[in-house]
Amino acid sequence: MLKKGFWLNLLVALPLVFLFGCAESGKVDQGRVVAFDTDKKLVTLIRDKKIDTLNPDYSYLPPLTYALPVDPQEIGPLPKAGGRMKLDVEKNQIVIFDSKTQNFKTIDFKPVDKKTGVERGDLLVKGKKFPVVDKAKKTVTIYSSRQKILETIGLPEEYFTLPDSTWDAGDEVRIYYKEEGKSLRFMNITQTDIFKK
Questions:
Q1: DSSP SS3 for 145
Q2: Is 147 helix (H, G, I), strand (E, B) or coil?
């Protein structure tokens, strides 16, 4: 049986093959959403430099902003924005995108509780909303479905003035475009279930 990683990489590769095979070639961008203006229909993302579903690299600056396609048929599920770029459980660090400085910030945290191998269907996370911010205990509980990690981290008090979405990972999206800043096709990878029949 083929592993899920194979299908995820295929999900990345096939649209690229199709798009680059077209007579009028355009370009493809992929990254994590850090802002979404529903009124203006503008999505801002941090480009994934690797375009590797299992080991992404969200470190491209400046952030890129695209208008959603004019044709509603070319728009997938609308994206959720978030500030978390990386959760490093080995170094006990979290990397966030700071919208005020338009730059990344690496924050050291104190591990409080960590569970590994947690699938999306696990009772620990199924039907629950993350992150869970506890200002009284100065902790944030984060679930990373890609890393299959559920971890509660302790942070300095200064970080609890930030919005809860700071600790959440924005949706991974793919954009096809020919003109900078104007998407012709918008796909929400995070919210698209390729295994759904």
A1: coil
A2: coil
- Tokens (6 digits) for 75: 């728009």
Q: How is the beta sheet containing 93-98 ordered, strand by strand? A: 84-88, 93-98, 103-108
In the structure encoding, which two tokens stand for residue 183, read together? Answer: 């998407």
Work out how many domains the chain is built from and give that number.
2
DSSP letters of 44-66? EEEEBSS--TTS--B--SS-EEE
- Write the pLDDT tens digit of every residue in 123-176: 999 999 999 999 999 999 999 999 999 999 999 999 999 999 999 999 999 999
pLDDT band at 51 (very low <50, low <70, confident <90, very high): confident
Residues 90 and 159 occupy one common structural domain? yes
Q: Which two tokens stand for residue 186?
A: 């918008």
- The one-letter amino acid code at 44 reads T
Range list of H helices, 38-197: none
Are 61 and 49 in contact by the 8 Å Cβ rule? The answer is: no
Q: Tell me how far apart the alpha carbons of residues 195 and 197 are, in angstroms, rounded to a whole number.
A: 6
Nearest alpha-carbon partner for 150 in 126, 170, 176: 126
- 163 and 88: one domain? yes
